[in-house]
Structure formats: structure tokens, C-alpha cells
């Protein structure tokens, strides 16, 4: 059989240019029949389909299928045959299905016995012993990522380290903390990860960023001090009498965006120029486009509302039933793009187009004088949204053709965009079972993966950990074990594709974002009392979970 007289390798190259849905169509119907050469004998549809399927069974095309099903794209590693890449990806997926350790999450055997792990974001785990900081990158053998350890002497910086973040694609570490004196001063140290040590970052015009709180901090809770890096932008939040969110261009040291609010402010970068912001008692999400080269107006007055500016879009969240006088109270917002180390050329990486944003909503009865009373029947919800959907509405001129179409239902380019116009067709809403001991700090997102942590009723020693993976082909290769995990997850959250009878939300609600889930139970010594409200969690790229409470850490 001959299609257009082309050799097989040319046909394979053409097929590799197709997206995955088009490849699936090629394997299911007789789409090539019109392109057979006249000299070809008359073939029936079954024979042509068989030939197409034979082409699609070649390693190069099977690898493309496997990448799509796992939410990955090909990595920068060179000199590795496609067959070996495919085998490595299959082993990686087997580990995911079995909830086994894809990475080696154990800290080095040479670590000191007495240490504390800092709350963090990024790919590397920080722990402190005495006045030394160790930063540990776990190995991922299947992806050919080697483990790495960096050391840093804290004697030279006079802060009580409280939070750190890494961007390994830029070999960047940002370490934040409170100065010993005066106690109302916070510092962010911008550092570079060299071969084995940590040194000041030479590209930073101001290697130490400083802010002064109006009152000394009364807590080292990680929710009160957090920093996230995305490209040239660094977002930093801290709490005194108000919650402050300030965005710096860390290379120039300039403040390029800032806001203060009575309520806690939650934020996530959607891209190197887009920041999603929300706060308590709001039914909407705001996305700001930030120019990293334009300084913010200083001084910055405290504001009771997030600023309305031209470079901003308002996205309404799932509507609540007016009859119950409910408000959506945002408890968390998380999004982090994986950042591979620049000197480690991995076989495959998470697909950046599948990155999601996760928001926790709570419904509450709103009474006069801004008092909020939680009703016994109130529920929490986790809303998972592809970030590309928000970007498509925020930056229509640069939106990819693969983005969902932008609706014109909202009245003006800067007016609120209804949930039905932007989120309903591509998101997933997960109502949390009311009996669940939901841990609000147990929500974390990296790429397309979302961590959900819950405690069991009447048990302080058992945690249920769910890692969900959201992308268009997530349900295409679910195993029996994953189906069991999904059934377990359904006991804690409603995973139905159509939600009906949800008391506090207008319905029905159709969930159109596919996902898969793995579940693991973590048990602790029941003699130890854990205050899970103080739990800090982190999710690494391969689904490894780190949970930090004082000197305790668990991962899988």
C-alpha cells in the first residue's frame, strides 16, 4: 500500500505534526482512502485502517500518544532513542498508577539528626540544622534527573528563615525571613545555585529586598510570609494589620505592582506577565497584566478593594444560590509551573499547556456588619481551571488557536466575565464531603497535578492524600487501581461529571476537565498530637508530597 507515493518515514513525519486527537482519528476511520495512488489495488476500508494502525504502532507515534496520555512533552535530553524514551515513560506511568515512589524523596543519609524543614515552593526541599541551610533536589531516575544538594551558611544573614522558593530553570533561590532586630523588618535574599553551594545572585541589582511591617509579626506561619518567582517577577506577601502583596522585578529591584487589604490575599502567577489575585468574601477572581519594566506608584496606600485598572479582567466564580444568601470565600489559590534544572536534560517534562489553577471556595451565610457565620450545611469546593483559559481571556491577541473561544457574553472588555462564559466548559468543580476534616493548607498545584490532603473524622493520626492529574487525556489510560482510587476519592469529594442537587450552588454543573487520581494513606504515631491546621504541604513535579510540621516530614 502506498499513500501519495511517499516513503514510510515521510508519512511518519507528517503524522507527528498532527495533534493527538487527529492521530486518534487516523487510527479509527478510513481518512487516507482518498489519497491512495490510482495504481493501488482496490482496498476495502478495513485494509486501509489496518495499514494506518500499523503506522501508528511505530515507536515514534506511540511515544507521542504516551506523552499526551501522561500530560507530558518531550524533554531536552539528547542521544536517547525514541524506543528508550517510550520505555522510560511507560515505567514512569506504572509508578504513577501504583502510587509508588517515582522520585527518591529521602533526604541524604549525611543529614544531621536535628533539623527543621522550611515551608517552600519549587522543586527542591530546604532544611536547616543550626545555622546551615541544605537544599535537596530528589533524584528522578526514570526521567534521568540526578539528586543534588546545596549548602549555605546562614551566619551571614541575620534573619529567622521562614520560607523559601526555588526556580531551578534560572538556578535561583529566594530565602525570606524576619530580622531579629528590628522585628518588624522582613528580608528576601536572592541567591544563585552554583555547582554545590549557594551564593548571592549576580543578576539582581538589589540582592536583598526589604519591607517594614507596621507591627512585629506574632507568628511564623507560612501563610503570613510567602514568596513565588516567575521569570523576572517575584511576588511577596506578608501580614501585619493588613495583608500586603508586592510584586518586584527581582533583577532591577523595582516594585511593579502592589496592594494591601483587610482580608488575606491569595495569588498565583499564570505566566510571566499575568497574576491571579483573590481574597476572602469575594465571588470573583481578578487577573492583572503586569509590566515588569514599569515601576508601581509609590507610596502605596492601603485599599479596601483590589484595584480596578485597565490591565485587569474580572472572572466570576461558580454562582451561589441567592436564596441561601451565600458568599464564595476563597481560602486558597495555587499554581506553579514546573521548573527543571538548566543543567539536567531530562527525557520528558510536564506539558506547560496543561497547567491548572486550583481555588478553594467556601459558602457562608452573610449577616449584617460583615459577620460571617458558617452554616452546618455549608460545603467547601475545589475549582480546577486550566490557566490557558484565563490567559485566553486576558490576552486575546496572543491566545493560541488551541485555547477555548472567548465568549462575548460579558458587557465590556473590562466587565465581569460570567462563569458560564469562561469556566463552565473547561473546568472541574469538586464539592468536598461535609463530613471531611478538610485541611485548607493541604492544597497545592504543580503543573497539571493537584494535591488534596484531608484528615479522617475522629482520628488525629491518619491523613488521606490525593494527587489528581488534570489534562485532556487524563482518563484515557486509567488502570483498575486508579479506578479504585477514584472510588475512594468519591467518598471525600463528589467526582461526578454532572453535579446535581448541590445545595449552595446553582446547578446542574457539568464537569468537562478530565482527571485521574492516586490515593495514599499516611499514618502517624497516635501518641503524638498533631495540629493539622499548622501543616505546610508541598508537591514536587513527579507527584511527591512533602508535609512539614515543625520537625516532622512525610512524603510519597
Automatic annotation (TrEMBL):
InterPro entries given for it?
Answer: F-box-like_dom_sf (IPR036047), F-box_dom (IPR001810)
Q: Where is the signal peptide?
A: none
Q: What CDD domains is this protein classified in? A: F-box_SF
Q: Look up the coiled coil feature and give its residue ranges.
A: none
The segment(s) forming the F-box domain are 1-30
* The name this protein goes by in its record: F-box domain-containing protein
> To which species is this protein native?
Trametes pubescens (White-rot fungus)
Amino acid at each position: 500500500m502506498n499513500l501519495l507515493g511517499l516513503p514510510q518515514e515521510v508519512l511518519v513525519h507528517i503524522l507527528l505534526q498532527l495533534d493527538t486527537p487527529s492521530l486518534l482519528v487516523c487510527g479509527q476511520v478510513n481518512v487516507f482512502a482518498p489519497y491512495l495512488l490510482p495504481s493501488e489495488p482496490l482496498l476495502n476500508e478495513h485494509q486501509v485502517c489496518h495499514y494506518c494502525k500499523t503506522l501508528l504502532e511505530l515507536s515514534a507515534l506511540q511515544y507521542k500518544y504516551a506523552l499526551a496520555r501522561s500530560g507530558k512533552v518531550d524533554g531536552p535530553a539528547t542521544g536517547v532513542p525514541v524506543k528508550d524514551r517510550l520505555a522510560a515513560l511507560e515505567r514512569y506511568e506504572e509508578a504513577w498508577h501504583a502510587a509508588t515512589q517515582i522520585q527518591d524523596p529521602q533526604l541524604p543519609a549525611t543529614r544531621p539528626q536535628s533539623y527543621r524543614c522550611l515551608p517552600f515552593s519549587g522543586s527542591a526541599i530546604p532544611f536547616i540544622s543550626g545555622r546551615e541551610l541544605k537544599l535537596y533536589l530528589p533524584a528522578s531516575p526514570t526521567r534521568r534527573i540526578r539528586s543534588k544538594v546545596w549548602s549555605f551558611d546562614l551566619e551571614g544573614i541575620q534573619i529567622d528563615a521562614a520560607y523559601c522558593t526555588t526556580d531551578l530553570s534560572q538556578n535561583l533561590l529566594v530565602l525570606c525571613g524576619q530580622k531579629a532586630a528590628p522585628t518588624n523588618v522582613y528580608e528576601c535574599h536572592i541567591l544563585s545555585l552554583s555547582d554545590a553551594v549557594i551564593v548571592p545572585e549576580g543578576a539582581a541589582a538589589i540582592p536583598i529586598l526589604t519591607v517594614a511591617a507596621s507591627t512585629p509579626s506574632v507568628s511564623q506561619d507560612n501563610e503570613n510570609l510567602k514568596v513565588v518567582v516567575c521569570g523576572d517577577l517575584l511576588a511577596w506577601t506578608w501580614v501585619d494589620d493588613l495583608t500586603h502583596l508586592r510584586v518586584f522585578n527581582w533583577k532591577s529591584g523595582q516594585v511593579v505592582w502592589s496592594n494591601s487589604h483587610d482580608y488575606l490575599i491569595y495569588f498565583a502567577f499564570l505566566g510571566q506577565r499575568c497574576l491571579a489575585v483573590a481574597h476572602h468574601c469575594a465571588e470573583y477572581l481578578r487577573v492583572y497584566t503586569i509590566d515588569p519594566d514599569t515601576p508601581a506608584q509609590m507610596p502605596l496606600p492601603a485599599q479596601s478593594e483590589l484595584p480596578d485598572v485597565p490591565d485587569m479582567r474580572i472572572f466570576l466564580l461558580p454562582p451561589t444560590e441567592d436564596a441561601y444568601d451565600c458568599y464564595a470565600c476563597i481560602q486558597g489559590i495555587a499554581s506553579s509551573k514546573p521548573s527543571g534544572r538548566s543543567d539536567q536534560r531530562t527525557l520528558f517534562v510536564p506539558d506547560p499547556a496543561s497547567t491548572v489553577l486550583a481555588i478553594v471556595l467556601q459558602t457562608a451565610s452573610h449577616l449584617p456588619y460583615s459577620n460571617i457565620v458558617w452554616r452546618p450545611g455549608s460545603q467547601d469546593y475545589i475549582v480546577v481551571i486550566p490557566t490557558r483559559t484565563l490567559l485566553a481571556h486576558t490576552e486575546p491577541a496572543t491566545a493560541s488557536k488551541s485555547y477555548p473561544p472567548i465568549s462575548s457574553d460579558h458587557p465590556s472588555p473590562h466587565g465581569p466575565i460570567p462563569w458560564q462564559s469562561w469556566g463552565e466548559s473547561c473546568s472541574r468543580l469538586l464539592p468536598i464531603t461535609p463530613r471531611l476534616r478538610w485541611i485548607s493548607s493541604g492544597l497545592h498545584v504543580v503543573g497539571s497535578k493537584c494535591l488534596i490532603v484531608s484528615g479522617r473524622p475522629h482520628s488525629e493520626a491518619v491523613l488521606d492524600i490525593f494527587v489528581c492529574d488534570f489534562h485532556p487525556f487524563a482518563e484515557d489510560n486509567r488502570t483498575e487501581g486508579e479506578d479504585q482510587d477514584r472510588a475512594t476519592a468519591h467518598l471525600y469529594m463528589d467526582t461526578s461529571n454532572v453535579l446535581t442537587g448541590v445545595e449552595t450552588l446553582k446547578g446542574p454543573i457539568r464537569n468537562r476537565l478530565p482527571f485521574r487520581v492516586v490515593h495514599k494513606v499516611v499514618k502517624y504515631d497516635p501518641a503524638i498530637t498533631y495540629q493539622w491546621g499548622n501543616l505546610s504541604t508541598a508537591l514536587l513535579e513527579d507527584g511527591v508530597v512533602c508535609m512539614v510540621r515543625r520537625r516532622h516530614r512525610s512524603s510519597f
